[in-house]
């Protein structure tokens, strides 16, 4: 399998993948605790009788008391499994399980596969219709044409929840997005394009309808099926859905129809197109060979004879994957969230346009990483990749908006901006933690120095920082940085402000300033000049301390301690502050601030008190109500030990400062975080689990942060450096672009100070 492409796997591996551990790809997890007798009484009899009566009285409350509103059935009878044909309901189960888990992975939609053992259209329809109480939506899959048209149409009429045959419309939406972008790249107007569609089944008919809806002319489309061209007057192998696309033409075979065509859309079977056919197409042909698992023609075979072609397939291992996974999770997300009664044309067009637009924007690093290659809009990247996290924000919102505008939304969204934000948070809890910071940064964009701009990862962060409106990046690096920006898809690299420390006109003033600070620490003026010229951290920190920028981000090229030493040559701690580091640990239902994880090896009681106050301030700026625990191995003196004094005294220092937050200690991590353990200490002054953990020393702090990151289901933000006179953020050397972006935003928003 997959021999001519980038990803290789054997049939054995594919079987092993499915059989290893728990067989299959799906399991069900309870969303409520099931630990105690009381839990059982609530979840099942007798407690469950209460929502039963409520729903019987008002059926709409089923959306409040059951999983219905977020539950989609993936239903097939296995009559058109991928392009493998009619292999029966049971054989379709791996595909349907796969689709169910994609719903969850990409859009947090709960989904279950259902395979129905019947080819009888009426039985199928009745079975699905009877399931309406269970689900919030129905996704039909791999049902052959023309039965699928009758099934979908009838179910739509009979059911009051969205029914969507994904092979038809999901495919059509992604293909249409790709066609829009390929036309743009080759300078074509949709209304003049000549299109040949191969296949006249579920996917082809819907694709053809959608491209016609967005501007392709009816007479410019020739459709073929297994018997050749569908021309007006043909009688063999026809049905009403094919007839609707029959045109007047003398062409009778695909080979004849494809001559001079601008676009080929294949939704038929493997190998249906030859190199000779491709040679006959118009200049810069657009070829979407979407049959699965093997396309009508492979991209290497196309490019061998037509290097000017734009090629897409249904596979993830070639560029430009037209796969409905880009659509269905997000389309259902939007439809479920407004409790839409159906998914109409306007919602489909909105999804296609949102997806097309996304491909034209700069690509986030997560995507490049997931695919092991970089993307920018062009012939090899006309469609976003499924791992693009922006799909989750953009597509459901576009679909929900269109549903509201066309009157099918039973629960319209009042605040679209808040909805988009909640979508982002749905998959990545970190995003919601950072909401406030992102908003503050956008409202008042600051100048942030990216001191290591020669690093690609730093440039990616800087580009996003600018493009997303969080602030103005001030780059430090050599002239080649402009080429690197261009290579990353930036059209106007010169619009970035770039400072080259070797020839910057600011150097003499900077050297003066540095000399003033360092002359009594044994440095000559020429040492200072050399430092300014050669050390980007010193140059960057000087840009900030001399007022040319508001904050700085660095750390990917040198270890933390060395970077901090360099920065400290230029800058002091803020007056009466102790500089220290915070890691924020974000898990699905908890956010915890951990300090000091980076700077003070053995903090004194005063320093611990400063660390607590500084962390509280950061937590508050991020919208949290802080409760501080001073951690130890001991709870309130038990067991006694030789190194508890600092921690104890830190509490006394805070007592004397009369601070306005809850703090307690010394205590163990479980007494701080776990309400059950906490009950052993009823005198504790904490009103709930702690969310600011002040660690007794750097060893335990740094180790804890890194252990949690490596072992736990937590996302880590930071380290954030606070307590310096200006915000300087020192990332870890292993940081990726989104971690750098986060730190830059925290600095720009004035959170990390
Ligand atoms: N990339 C993607 O995201 C998706 C890809 N697909 C792929 O599209 C293909 C069709 O799926 P689907 O529409 O669900 O299946 P259907 O069974 O509904 O339709 C198949 C169509 O292909 C036609 N066909 C078969 N052999 C040939 C041939 N040699 N030349 C021309 N046409 C031929 C059939 O013609 P006839 O009517 O004469 O029998 C029929 O019209 C599959 O390969 C599937 O994997 C589908 C959905 C999504
Ligand atoms: C992707 C898909 O749905 C198909 O090939 O049938
Ligand atoms: Mg399918």
TrEMBL record:
Keywords, sorted A to Z: Metal-binding, Multifunctional enzyme, Oxidoreductase
PROSITE patterns named in the record: MALIC_ENZYMES
Domain of life, per lineage: Bacteria
Cleavable signal peptide: none
Gene Ontology MF, one: malate dehydrogenase (decarboxylating) (NADP+) activity
Domain (Malic enzyme NAD-binding): residue spans on this chain: 168-404
Cofactor: Mg(2+); Mn(2+)
Domain Malic enzyme N-terminal span(s) in chain numbering: 23-156
UniProt EC number: 1.1.1.40
Family under the similarity heading: In the C-terminal section; belongs to the phosphate acetyltransferase and butyryltransferase family.
Name of this protein: NADP-dependent malic enzyme
Gene source species: Sphingobium tyrosinilyticum
């Amino acid at each position: 399998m997959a021999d001519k492409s980038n990803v290789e796997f054997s049939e054995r591996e594919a079987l092993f993948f499915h059989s290893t551990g728990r067989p299959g790809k799906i399991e069900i997890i309870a969303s409520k605790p099931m630990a105690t007798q009381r839990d059982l009484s609530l979840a099942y009899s007798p407690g469950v009788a209460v929502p039963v009566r409520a729903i019987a009285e008002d059926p709409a409350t089923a959306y409040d008391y059951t999983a219905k509103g977020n539950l989609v059935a993936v239903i097939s009878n296995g009559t058109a499994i991928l392009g493998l044909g009619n292999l029966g309901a049971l054989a379709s189960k791996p595909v349907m399980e796969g689709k169910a888990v994609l719903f969850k992975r990409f859009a947090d939609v709960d989904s279950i596969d259902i395979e129905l053992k019947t080819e009888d259209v009426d039985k199928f329809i009745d079975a699905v219709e009877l399931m309406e109480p269970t689900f919030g939506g129905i996704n039909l899959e791999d049902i052959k044409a023309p039965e699928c048209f009758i099934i979908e149409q009838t179910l739509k009429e009979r059911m009051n929840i969205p029914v969507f045959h994904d092979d038809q419309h999901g495919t059509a939406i992604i293909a249409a997005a790709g066609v829009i972008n390929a036309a743009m790249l080759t300078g074509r107007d949709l209304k003049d394009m000549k299109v040949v569609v191969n296949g006249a089944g579920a996917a082809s008919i819907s694709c053809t309808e959608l491209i016609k809806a967005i501007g392709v002319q009816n007479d410019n489309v020739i459709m073929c099926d297994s018997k050749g061209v569908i021309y007006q007057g043909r009688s063999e192998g026809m049905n009403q859905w094919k007839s609707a696309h029959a045109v007047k033409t003398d062409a009778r075979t695909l080979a004849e129809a494809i001559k001079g065509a601008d676009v080929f859309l294949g939704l038929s079977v493997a190998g249906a197109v030859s190199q000779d056919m491709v040679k006959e197409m118009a200049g810069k042909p657009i070829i979407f060979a979407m049959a699965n698992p093997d396309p009508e023609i492979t991209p290497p075979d196309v490019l061998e004879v037509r290097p000017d072609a734009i090629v897409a397939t249904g596979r993830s291992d070639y560029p430009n994957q037209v796969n409905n996974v880009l659509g269905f999770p997000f389309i259902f997300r939007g439809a479920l969230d407004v409790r839409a009664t159906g998914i109409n044309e306007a919602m489909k067009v909105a999804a296609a346009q949102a997806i097309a637009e996304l491909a034209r924007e700069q690509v986030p690093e997560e995507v490049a990483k997931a695919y092991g290659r970089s993307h920018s809009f062009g012939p090899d990247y006309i469609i976003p990749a499924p791992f693009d996290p922006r799909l989750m924000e953009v597509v459901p919102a576009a679909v929900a908006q269109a549903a509201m505008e066309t009157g099918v939304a039973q629960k319209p969204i009042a605040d679209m901006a808040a909805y988009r934000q909640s979508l982002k948070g749905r998959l990545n809890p970190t995003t919601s933690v950072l909401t406030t910071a992102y908003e503050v940064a956008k409202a008042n964009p600051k100048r942030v120095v990216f001191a290591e701009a020669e690093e690609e990862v730093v440039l990616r962060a800087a580009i996003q920082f600018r493009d997303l409106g969080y602030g103005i990046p001030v780059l430090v690096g050599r002239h080649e940085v402009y080429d690197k920006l261009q290579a990353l898809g930036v059209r106007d690299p010169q619009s970035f402000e770039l400072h080259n420390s070797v020839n910057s006109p600011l150097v003499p003033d900077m050297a003066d300033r540095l000399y003033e600070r360092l002359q009594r620490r044994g440095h000559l003026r020429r040492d200072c000049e050399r430092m300014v010229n050669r050390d980007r951290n010193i140059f960057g920190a000087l840009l900030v301390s001399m007022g040319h920028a508001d904050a700085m981000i660095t750390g990917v090229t040198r270890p933390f301690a060395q970077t901090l030493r360099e920065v400290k040559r230029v800058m002091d701690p803020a007056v009466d502050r102790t500089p220290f580091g915070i890691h924020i640990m974000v898990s699905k239902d908890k956010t915890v601030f951990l300090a000091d994880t980076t700077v003070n090896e053995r903090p004194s009681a005063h320093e611990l008190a400063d660390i607590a106050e500084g962390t509280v301030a950061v937590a508050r700026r991020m919208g949290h109500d802080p409760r501080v625990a001073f951690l130890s191995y001991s709870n309130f003196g038990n067991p006694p030990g030789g190194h508890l004094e600092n921690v104890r005294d830190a509490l006394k220092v805070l007592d004397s400062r009369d601070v306005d937050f809850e703090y307690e200690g010394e205590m163990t991590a479980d007494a701080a975080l776990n309400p059950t353990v906490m009950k052993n200490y009823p005198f504790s002054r904490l009103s709930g689990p702690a969310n600011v953990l002040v660690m007794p020393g750097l060893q335990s702090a740094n180790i804890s942060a890194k252990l949690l990151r490596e072992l736990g289901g937590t996302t880590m933000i930071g380290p954030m450096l606070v307590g310096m006179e200006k915000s300087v953020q020192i990332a870890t050397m292993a940081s990726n672009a989104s971690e750098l972006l986060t730190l830059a935003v925290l600095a720009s928003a004035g959170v990390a100070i």
